[in-house]
Design a protein that fits this description.
The protein is mainly α and about 425 residues long. About 80% of the residues lie in helices and about 0% in strands.
Amino acid sequence: MSEPRAAVRLAYDALTSEDDGRVCRDISDAACNAQPQNFLRHATALGLSKAADGLSDPKLVLSWLMTHLGAPSALVGLLVPVREAGALLPQLFTAARIRAMAQRKWAWAGAAVGQGIGAAIILAAALLTDGALAGGIILAGLAVLALSRSVASVAYKDVLGKTIAKGQRGTVTGVAASWSSLVVIGFALVLIFFSDARAFIVLGALALAAGAWVLAGVTFAGLAEDTGATEGGGNGWHAAIANLNYLREDSQLARFILARGLLTSTALAPPYLVVLAAGDSGAALEGLGALVLASSLAALVSGYLWGRLADRSARQVLIWTGICGAAAMVLTLTFAALGLEARFWAMPLALFGLMVAHQGVRLGRATYLVDMTGQDRRAAYTAIANTVIGVILLASGLFGAVAALFGAGATLAVFAAMAAGGAIVAHGLKELGDG
């Protein structure tokens, strides 16, 4: 074995701690032989993409940027719906097209480059325009990014299932989440300690995000992927309706989507937590860095652990993340009721717990969905789940109305109930782990 290949194998063994000989479950012999190299390419490419996500987070970074540029608040309010719905809703109609590709790594690689282009559009808008024009162009760039992400999401789970063995999939995504969080932690610390240069730092972060996505695409294109079945590769409404039939045929898929829908509360809650903490202090500079730091620290300490647990039981991950998310939101409400929300440690602590839960939701749902079905239905199931969740997120603007009428605390109480409900629904899922 050559020295580079020996180094790859050593790194793979260290990360997976695989010592029971069961390293090739649910993949071909060729994919098994290439798994060490593929594992590191997955961890690198996905980590680059996750780091870029953190550097250009619509809920935090882009909302601050649009406000800084003087964009109308109505446009700022469209950031999260455009990002989430644009990334999820098209998937029902793109899954069949992706299925027509014998090697779906090219779909993910191209989509990563597309996300880089979207980030570059946002950067150009920030450099060259301001006001409503800047807001409109930023939303257009975010739409490009979101649509590219929708393709990547469908393709990734299918490629992951073909190139990484069952029992290692949660680990590879956990490794990517953990190392990428270090990048975002650095970004947060720079924001905190060099707050006078915040605008310049945010622009630099967007440039880094664009480059990271392009590099991720190049890295992913080097995967050793078997050619796959391409039957059912037609596209359009007929394929979409045919995919929806799986909801009637598979009760576990329907239950999984319901649990995932309830657990979206962990993604929707952070802005309302920040509203409780901020008040009229106007401490936007410190707030941005602190929020990014709490989120990235949570990913760092929990990503790998959630990934390892997901390889044993993704169902248990979904249960525990629902419980943890609900507990974090109850803790937030308790701090607010005791008048502690303005303390420098209170809301960051609650936010940290919430982000730990959200990290687990993301890993648990991805691993469970890949493990619950074979290659013949994996892309279709991914598209169905993501499209239904996209509709839920598109309707999440209703929670803004709840907050306006009853306050952020009432909205967080609803989210806490949703998270607890997600844990209960997940408890009824079949146990897929075998280790």
